Amino acid sequence: MRRSLWQRLARILRHRWWDERDAARALPEAALQRIEARVAASEAGHSGEIRVVVEAGLPLSYLWQDLSARDRAITQFGKLRVWDTQANNGVLVYLLLAEHAIEIVADRGLNQHVDAAQWQALIAPMREAFRQGRFEAGLLQAVDAIDGLLRRHHAVDAAQANPNELPNRPLMR
Known about the structure:
By secondary structure, the chain is of the alpha/beta class. The protein has helices at residues 5-17, 20-26, 29-43, 60-64, 69-79, 108-111, 116-131, 135-154; strands spanning 49-55, 90-96, 101-106, 171-172.
């Protein structure tokens, strides 16, 4: 979508308005700990890795280029090496507070089992939670929904080795 100059300027201002303090208010330390615990509990039952990233606003370079939250999520997927898991089943959950946008980027090990319509159906209730300012609830919904997919397609039993390949703590930016 190509935006007019005024729309781009308004978007830049909105993203500059949000900062780390807003992110900390939206997701205080206790919420981050609950999300981290939910990710850890989830990963005990499957070989997948779930990485949560929350950004207050897009970097200025993304805004100047009129790039989307999806573009940023894909970049973070690569930078954080979510793609580099043993079974190629890492999943990035990306929340952009300035736009109340959520993006999920999954590696090919899971994406081969889940089509675009399933991803959109999974994201819809989370978008509503974010619109209502219920960021923790939305992220917990995301982790639970992804957990169900990973348990269905990449379950492990207690006897299998299941190393933790990525940090469980949400990354706040």
